[in-house]
Amino acid sequence: LTISSGGEVGIGRTPTAGYKLDIEANNQRSRLIGTTGYVVSEITNDGGSISIGKENSVGGGFMSTAGAYDSIIVSQGAVNMVFGTNNTERMRISSGGNVGVGTDSPVKKLQVSDSVDIGFSMTNTNLYNKAAIFFERTTTQGRGDLHFAVNNTADSVNVTKADARLTISSGGNVTIFGQMQANSIYFDEAG
């Protein structure tokens, strides 16, 4: 344990200037231990706080909607929660609860944005994506075609937009298995 003249504390190393607590340890863990009460670590500044912890044995002790022993990551205050990799934002939960992937200002409960195409795929237990829904942007202002695709081959090839079995164009035309249908399709069930 080292304490610098500036008040920085170092554990396992000399403290780095500007860091009030500087810990170095390989293959080590730190923990807060509780029994039946909640245990939370909190990081706070003037903009609010973020807490990471475990709820108590009955729930509702730290966060009113949490169940017994739930794991919790919560931003306190009217601020967004941002997730990133490689120093780039990848996902955001707005202070209002909207989730954005590829956008920093989601206006719906789930908003996925990309400058080219957006795809959602389903993966089976062997990790091959054999079905997907793709949005292909074909013009400005987020307009484009919606493709429903399936790849039923017994191999390790994932589904692509070329496997589309049904496409709804931005103009409303429907293509099924590569055959353009009339401007509108009507299904009528007798009885």
Features:
191 residues; mainly beta; six-stranded antiparallel sheet; four-stranded mixed sheet
Structure characterization notes:
- The protein has 191 residues and is mainly β.
- It has no helices and 16 strands.
- The strands form four sheets. The chain has a six-stranded antiparallel beta sheet with strand order 11-12-13-14-15-16, with no helix packed on it. A four-stranded mixed beta sheet has the order 7-8-9-10, with no helix packed on it.
- β1 (2-3) and β2 (9-11) form a beta hairpin.
- The radius of gyration is 25 Å and the shape is elongated.
- The mean pLDDT is 83.
Helical fraction: under 10%
Count of individual beta strands: 16
Average pLDDT reading: 83
Strand order of the largest sheet: 11-12-13-14-15-16
Distance from N terminus to C terminus (CA atoms, Å) equals 82 Å
Gyration radius, to the nearest Å?
25 Å
> What is the structural class?
mainly beta
Tally of DSSP helical segments: 0
Residue windows where pLDDT falls under 50 for at least 5 positions = none
Sheet with most strands: 6 strands, antiparallel
Q: What is the percentage of strand-forming residues? A: 35-45%
Oligomer: single chain
H and E string: EEEEEEEEEEEEEEEE
Tell me the overall shape: elongated
What order do the helices and strands come in, and which of them pair?
Blueprint: E1 2-3, E2 9-11, E3 21-23, E4 39-45, E5 48-54, E6 71-76, E7 81-85, E8 88-93, E9 99-101, E10 110-112, E11 117-123, E12 129-137, E13 144-150, E14 164-168, E15 174-176, E16 179-180
Parallel strand pairs: 2-3, 9-10
Antiparallel strand pairs: 1-2, 4-5, 5-6, 7-8, 8-9, 11-12, 12-13, 13-14, 14-15, 15-16
